[in-house]
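Work Package 3 (structural annotation) set out to generate three-dimensional models for the target panel prioritized at the project kickoff. During this period the team completed the workflow that converts sequence records into discrete structure tokens, so that structures can be stored uniformly alongside our sequence database. As a representative example, we reproduce one entry of 206 residues exactly as it appears in the project archive.
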Amino acid sequence: MPTKRKFVALVLCMALAGAFLITGARAETIAQPVKGEDGLYHHTWFLESFLDLKEDMATAEANGKRLVVFVEQRGCSYCTKVQTEILVDPKINAFIRKHFEVVQIDLWGAKEVTDLDGEVTTEGKLARKWRALFTPTIYFMPENFAAAKGKGGGDAAVAIMPGAFGKGTFYTLFEWVQLKRYKTGEHFQKYVNDQYWKKRGGRPKK
């Protein structure tokens, strides 16, 4: 039987170990984005862009990644959710940072932006050109500029996420694009369904 002194020492060791694990977990916590003067939340790992999307696509390709464009607006609660809850999830954050470069467009912004087709316009006009009806709307650009074939980003996008979804759907769409499943003709909803049953050991027998 352990003595009372040994028991107390054991408890103290366990407490210290627990504190160490908690500290380690906190050290791995993803930093929250900072709210800019434009009212949008910005992460430090977003692509530093002059809003020339052709150049941004070239940068993404050079980094072995794909360009993705977030259209957002000041005061959008769903945009805030994506930035402060979804993009700080460790799994989602790691996957997107590994495979994608992110650029933000303000739905009402006046900054000059150059579309993939070479048109020079403003953020607000670009959003209307791309038919962004609400925020956030996320556009997944082709894997390289040649695949855009002279189209604007809205028409060249291989997939569009219209709104804020839960973490599972959000992550899965990024994964579906990264795996280029759109090239095989596989519908995204089928991919979601297949992944759902895969994680549960297979579909139930009829």
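Helices lie at 4-27, 53-62, 77-86, 90-99, 123-129, 153-156, 167-178, 188-198.
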